[in-house]
Specification:
With 242 residues, the protein is of the alpha+beta class. Helices cover 57% and strands 19% of the residues. The chain has 2 domains: 1-15 and 41-74 and 155-242; 78-154.
Length: 242
């Protein structure tokens, strides 16, 4: 695995090249060298960079900005929608609606305490305890929302989360060779990189699209688990190919 990465993968690039082939001449019986066009597979290596503390902080700022932008457009948040269904009835029962609101509050409180401890070099034991607590509560929240996922995917939170996943993908996607590594998506500023991601995803030759989707799936799996290992991510990324 590449140093400082959470996931690596290889994709074979197929190219037609002229190669020298030795064969026996049927008439003379002697060996001769001929030039043939052959499809050569060249392995290309890629990796998902391990996020630094700075990248994580920038991601939180990006998410907050996206959430605020969506709210200004009049798009409701999950909490607002959950309360609306609690007040007027809907896909969530009264207890489920209350549960969603309580879990959201508990997750936000735990995240605030977690950030405070991280910034002040607090107890590592308490930090790990909060990480586990946040993950467990998020899993419960996902289960509660599973039956109403279609509705919640249009909330300000969900839109901001999807935008943040794209942001993370662009920041963490790298290609490498024997000498160095460099970001996979081209562009000087984020808007250019995002446009390049969309272009690669829609490439007709297939390979750029395949690589981009692997990056997006790997980052998505890591984003929701935070502690995912290489083999776990690999199983998820290649699930559709099995």
């Amino acid at each position: 695995m590449a140093k400082g990465s959470i996931y690596t993968f290889t994709v074979d690039k197929k190219e037609k090249k002229k190669v020298e082939v030795t064969r026996k001449n049927k008439e003379t019986g002697e060996e001769e060298i001929v030039i043939q066009n052959k499809t050569i597979k060249t392995p290309m290596k890629f990796f998902v960079k391990k996020p630094t503390r700075r990248i994580a902080d920038e991601a939180e700022t990006f998410y907050a900005a996206e959430l605020s932008k969506n709210v200004r457009k009049g798009i409701v948040t999950k909490a607002m929608m959950a309360k609306q269904y609690l007040d007027t009835g809907g896909p969530l029962t009264e207890d489920e609606g209350k549960g969603v609101l309580i879990l959201m509050k508990e997750i936000d409180d735990a995240k605030n305490e977690y950030q405070l401890l991280k910034s002040t070099n607090g107890s590592q034991e308490k930090i790990q305890e909060l990480e586990t607590q946040i993950l467990n509560k998020q899993k419960i929240l996902i289960e509660l929302e599973s039956s109403t996922q279609t509705i919640y995917q249009h909330t300000a939170d969900a839109r901001a989360e999807r935008a943040t996943l794209l942001w993370y993908t662009i920041q963490l996607a790298y290609k490498e060779d024997e000498e160095n590594s460099e970001p996979y998506f081209d562009g000087v500023v984020y808007e250019e990189q995002l446009e390049n991601l969309y272009d690669r995803e829609e490439m007709e030759d297939g390979i750029d699209s395949e690589i981009t989707k692997k990056f997006m799936k790997a980052v998505s799996y890591w984003f929701f688990s935070q502690t995912a290992k290489q083999d776990e991510i690999d199983t998820f990324v290649n699930m559709d190919n099995e």
